[in-house]
Amino acid sequence: MSQLPFPEQVAADAAAQFPTPFYLYDEAAIRENARRLHRAFDWCDFKEFFAVKATPNPYIIQTLAEESCGADCSSLAELILCERLGIGGEEIIFTSNDTPEKDYRKALELGAIINLDDISHIDYLSNIADLPELMCFRYNPGEALGSDSAFIIGQPQEAKYGFTRDQLFAGYQDIRSRGVKRFGLHTMVLSNELNSQFFVETARMVFEIAVQLKQELDIQLEFVNLGGGLGVPYKPDQAAVDLDLISNGIRELYQSMIVPAGLDPLKICMENGRYMTGPYGVLVTRVLHQKQTYKHYVGVDACMANLMRPGMYGAFHDITVVGKPSSSDDSVCDVVGSLCENNDKFAIDRPLPEVQTDDLLVIHDAGAHGHSMGFQYNGKLRCAEVLRTSEGEFKQIRRGETLEDYFATLDFSDFPAAVRS
Ligand SMILES: *Cc1c(COP(=O)(O)O)cnc(C)c1O
User: Fold this and answer.
1) pTM for the whole thing?
2) Mutate which of 114, 138, 198, 271 for ligand 1 pocket (most atoms within 8 A of beta carbon)
3) Which of the chain's ends, N or C, has fewer CB atoms near its CB within 10 Å?
4) pLDDT tens across 195-240, in order?
5) What is the pLDDT of residues 264-310, one digit of tens each?
6) What is the pLDDT of residues 29-47, one digit of tens each?
7) Atom of ligand 1 at shortest distance to CA of 192?
8) Residues in Cβ contact with 293 at an 8 Å cutoff, skipping those fewer than 6 apart
9) Percentage of the chain surpassing pLDDT 70?
10) Crossing angle, helix 76-84 and helix 58-66, to 10 degrees?
11) Is the peptide bond before 21 cis (omega within 30 degrees of 0)?
12) Cα 140 to Cα 117: distance, rounded to the nearest angstrom
């Protein structure tokens, strides 16, 4: 069973205050996890840039900023979200692809670290403004590293992201000749990876490039960014990543590769999203109906528009029925939403305690890539987000959408208001 960040009664207390469905995040657990990550890497100059797309809510970003995390942005809206929180400069890394000019303009205006996805963007960016003093390139090694990462990110050769190795070397020389003084190297080859050794291998890969850049081009990197991708054990039989194993493995490589090459100090960055918030947010939903046909269906008031991971990736999310511990006589059901799509299922063939209408279900590990992937298909509205603060209070940090929000982009002025019969 994946662990909830709080006793299940907390979800019931929140549901007494807020209409379901809603997301519930735990501030204390998010803080504690961020501290654990930093403690693991206290031997080096380490920086985590929280991948804003995972949970783009100002309260979450601010909480993580207070725990020394920067922000990894990939769009104009994400940049503006940080700007409005007063986060700027090198607290932001802007990792985009197929980037529109207005996004680059905002990143430049904020003084963010700009991480280019392609060599052609050197010219594209310099047509917009003088290149900044510090620049970073995204590396695509062209070969796979992780186990099931390929499922989400794709095989590197098939992935649209990043520079080839040759382009990297040409690119750094080019920007140096154009006056860039400080250099970073980025890669992102893992996603939801639970094999700790793969993160060590990612470090080996970028350290090798760092050493070669120094030896062949006399380019001294200031930082390497290993990307995000630290996994979350969604399934009961999965184990969490071992941060100490990752940190110790990277430390050994640092001592054997980076120090002898004269590259020390080299800052080590990551940009995790899922790992920072995933296990510390849940989706709270209520049973609306039950249906017995060829299968047993438990229909809830949330749907795939609130959390699309199960429908889109077949992702597993543990489910707790509040007040009903799971036991051996659990019966198997599909937990479904109301979307007119048969993949609108939070669980398939899942043993759950016997439920009744109005029972509360807590869908685990929904704190990252959950609400943020929500959509309005079928006229579904995105739900509220609630933070359980470190003081144990519930604070609504995003209201639910209303029908007015849904209709706001439509123009009815050409249609008579009279009711037709
Ligand atoms: C999505 C993404 C991340 C965060 O990924 P997680 O799996 O949530 O850690 C980090 N960097 C880039 C470039 C991304 O696209």
Assistant:
1) 0.96
2) 271
3) C
4) 999 999 999 999 999 999 999 999 999 999 999 999 999 999 999 9
5) 999 999 999 999 999 999 999 999 999 999 999 999 999 999 999 99
6) 999 999 999 999 999 999 9
7) 7
8) none
9) 96
10) 60
11) yes
12) 9
Q: Which CATH architecture has domain 279-405?
A: Beta Barrel (2.40)
Whether ligand 1 lies within 6 angstroms of the CB of 51 is answered as yes
Domain positions in the chain are 27-276, 279-405
Q: How far is the CA of 412 from the centre of ligand 1 (A)?
A: 40
Taking the C-alpha atoms of residue 372 and residue 278, their distance in angstroms, rounded to an integer, is: 12
229 lines ligand 1 (CB under 6 A): yes
Ligand 1 atom nearest to 369, measured from its CA = 8
> Is 3.40.50.10330 the CATH number for 27-276?
no
Q: What does residue 11 show for φ and ψ, rounded to 5 degrees? A: -65, -40
Per the document, the length of the chain is: 421
**Of 109, 115, 103, the residue nearest 76 (C-alpha):** 103
Give pLDDT, residue 152.
47
Backbone angles phi, psi at 409, to 5 degrees: -95, 0
Residue 331: strand pairing partners = 352
pLDDT of residue 159: 82
More confident of the two residues 60 and 3 = 60
